Amino acid sequence: MLAQETYSTSLWQLFSQSFDLFSVVLIGGSIAAVALIVRCVLDIKPTRILPASSVREARKAVATGSPDDLREFAARDRSFLSPVIEAAALRLGGPSEAVREAAELAASEECARWFRKIEWLNLIGNVAPLVGLAGTVWGMIIAFASLGATGGQAGPAELSDGISKALFHTLLGLCLAIPCLLVFGGYRAIVDRVCTRAMVVCGELVDAMIELREEG
Length: 216
Description:
Blueprint: H1 2-17, H2 21-43, H3 46-49, H4 52-64, H5 67-76, H6 81-90, H7 96-149, H8 156-215
Helix pairs in contact: 2-7, 2-8, 4-5, 4-8, 5-6, 6-7, 6-8, 7-8
């Protein structure tokens, strides 16, 4: 127990002694990462991207064949389907290819919107180790500059202490990058899977809209 307390105290001392601009950047990145992760947990859910109720309502609106019903659905719905249905409904009086092209463009924009919600985690996860490495290099420069200033007379204890402080920045960078990349990878798989399913559903709905228009 005593050894654990001594280690914890020395780790805190190492953090306080290594505190500089690079530490501030990494701590700020950690705060931003926590906020982004919480946002992902609350916002990125299959039931928000493509809820089953929205799919049922969209099918009912398409089955009526009325552009007004389609626009009404798009106005009240907040799922992946609404901008695609709205874009297709606005061009329903034109050629079929124009309807499909408008729907595909809206679906691509909607996919990009959901992926942008997690892209910052990828950015932080890739930049954090580089910031930590930069802090380590800066700390090593200071350590060896101090060694040169003493004429190479610094002992192993002093030199190892300076190097450990420098490497602490790399540790901070990795501690920030690893959870960011893990969360990004997990939610990227969710977004990709659900958005792919949503695009398939949108394609079916748009085809049904065009078929009803041609039959009418």
